[in-house]
Specification:
- The chain has two helices and eleven strands, in the order ββαβββββαββββ.
- The chain has 163 residues and is mainly beta.
- It has a five-stranded antiparallel beta sheet, with no helix packed on it. Strands 1-3-11-8 form a four-stranded mixed beta sheet.
- β4 and β5 form a beta hairpin.
- α1 crosses α2.
């Protein structure tokens, strides 16, 4: 199935992973999906004791980030960052160059990343029926800077006030 995590039905399962900005990426419009609703749907889909692994990009991003640049033998990638304080979002303006048949092709991408307060996300997880642990790595796999992870276990039964 292909679709948005915000709209797809989540089947009964033992585990859900939402890593690498799954809940952070935004479309170009101003629609703000309801994170609490998504977390409640995931909790409902999980068997008691089921596991959710989630990471988000944190609000504390450096608002004056310098442009970044990376290159290889036949490619280059430049990234300019823009912080939107009102919407608490980070805009990544990405320009890539790659050599194809001796010529360089240039592409532009605009990524919009919703930023979250880690304690607020932990509170949302708890409010819908999870026992939550905040982490900076999943085992030996460290998260990227400015990301926080959550290991959330579904409590059985869900608290009545969760909906």
């Amino acid at each position: 199935h292909v679709g948005s995590i915000w709209e797809m039905p989540i089947p009964r399962c033992r585990a859900v992973t939402a890593l690498s900005e799954v809940v952070c990426y935004r479309a170009g419009d101003d629609h703000q999906p309801d994170l609490r609703d998504l977390l409640a749907r995931i909790c409902d889909a999980l068997e008691p004791g089921g596991l959710l692994l989630l990471d988000v990009t944190e609000v504390g991003l450096d608002r004056n980030r310098d442009r970044t640049f990376a290159e290889g033998d036949d490619w280059a990638c430049l990234v300019r960052y823009e912080y939107d304080e009102m919407a608490v979002r980070l805009h990544r303006h990405i320009t890539s160059f790659r050599r194809v048949d001796g010529l360089y092709r240039r592409t532009h991408e605009h990524h919009i990343v919703q930023l979250y307060d880690a304690d607020e996300v932990a509170g949302l997880l708890e409010s819908v029926g999870f026992d939550v642990q905040q982490v900076r790595s999943f085992g030996e796999a460290a998260l990227l800077p400015q990301r926080v992870g959550f290991i959330a276990t579904r409590i059985a039964p869900r608290p009545p006030a969760a909906r």
